[in-house]
Design a protein that fits this description.
By secondary structure, the protein is an all-alpha fold. The protein is built from two helices and no strands.
């Protein structure tokens, strides 16, 4: 499993819950409340689907600062020992 995929899986849950919360507020605070029986499962499905690309885009951003710091401090290391 690549680092990006692992970070994406960690971020996915958080992104899905934030999107779900925003959607629930939109449903319950608007006239859509009358259709809550259908709108809430829709919000759930939409949040699950929208969180995938959002988490995939955010994952490399979360590790870029750490990698830049390692390059700056010259601690990234070569892939093979120099002889």
């Amino acid at each position: 499993m690549s680092n990006r995929l692992a970070i994406t899986l960690l971020i996915y849950g958080m992104a899905a819950f934030v999107i779900y919360g925003i959607g629930m507020i939109a449903v319950l605070a608007t006239p859509l409340q009358a259709y809550a029986e259908y709108a809430i499962p829709g919000v759930f499905a939409l949040s699950a689907l929208l969180a995938i690309p959002i988490a995939w885009k955010v994952a490399p951003i979360t590790r870029s600062r750490h990698q830049r710091k390692l390059v700056r401090e010259d601690k990234l290391g070569a892939p093979y020992p120099e002889s």
